[in-house]
Amino acid sequence: MKKKVSMAMVFGLVSLWASAQGIRITHGPYLQAVGEKEVTVVWTTDVDAVSWVELAPAGDESFYAAERPSYYQTRDGNRVVGKLHKITLEGLTKGTEYRYRVLSRAVLRYEGQSDVLYGQVAATNVYSRPPLRFRTLDGGGAEVAFTVVNDIHGRVRDLGDLTRNVVYGQADLALFNGDMVNDMEDETAFFAGFMDEAVNRFASEVPVFYARGNHETRGAFNVSFSSYFPTNTGKLYYSFRQGPVHFIILDSGEDKPDSDIEYSGLSQFDAYRSEQREWLVKELQGESFRTALYRLVIVHIPPVDSDWHGTMEVREKFLPVLRNAGITAMFCGHTHRYKYVEPGSLHDFPILVNAPETALDVKADAAGMTVVRKDTGGKELNRFYYPAK
Fold first, then answer.
1. Burial of 306 (0-12, 13-18, 19+ CB in 10 A)
2. What is the dihedral of CA 261, 263, 264, 266, to 10 degrees?
3. Of 118, 129, 342, 388, whose CA is between 20 and 30 Å from 302?
4. CA nearest neighbour of 330 among 339, 363, 253
């Protein structure tokens, strides 16, 4: 006996089919690995998709005034299908503003190049609101402004308060100096812990540079961390130059020995820090570092005031290389208390350890670099000035 198909069942199937073709941008976009000639845009979708970025010059002209060049994520000659989208735009001009939008087309079935079924497209809005913007870096620029925060541990309200000055056109970048979450158990913890708030505030237009903390090394998702924060070296230690400041970002790793039972035999941070030391020796010989008026080192674990293993590793492996190299200052976190360490026998530069409830607002030009430590209410707590050498 044949089963009768009701109109309700037909409409239900149609509804399911329409739903299956849908797609939504779930997180982002946010800017990564911004340089003088390139930028990487990162976002995620709720279903597998192929994605691209459309680019337009700055200005008031409608985004629809002309066909815009498209940039795709590819691997070995194929466009990438997935939920995490990372697209690098190359061949750009330094110190230049651009407008952009991201687009993702749902892939409903993918069984080889000859059998692909596409669904709908999700995109950022360029119709009823201005397109997103970014500006490439310029190492020869006259000035730079940025904010540093650390040890947020998922306190998104504090993150919003501390980054109130990170506004496009006023700040060039933001620096997250580690422990933005308690652990990296999954993607949800990563986005809900801080990155969604950063995107809501600024990260779609002002780039975030990240120095990993020891809490980002914990949890099953930690091995995926670098996929969400690509760098210009492909490593979690790297450098870049904006205006008169050369930034060196180091990854201090975990704070206990590799053999500690807490790490279940998976840690290899001693060798990793030794690898960074060798990179650092070469980094200090580069022209960008040598010609900068100010040279900042950003590292989560400070190399002072503790005999824990991670602290001693940072002290013994990094400080000898950095000593006598003309470092302006080192910014750290980790201890959850503020401290300013004057130059001493082990380091000929000051070390500023920032607290979780404060931010460092920094501005530098040809005359000097000013660092202002502020609380969540925007009140100035300390001010430091470093004249150009």
1. middle
2. -140
3. 388
4. 339
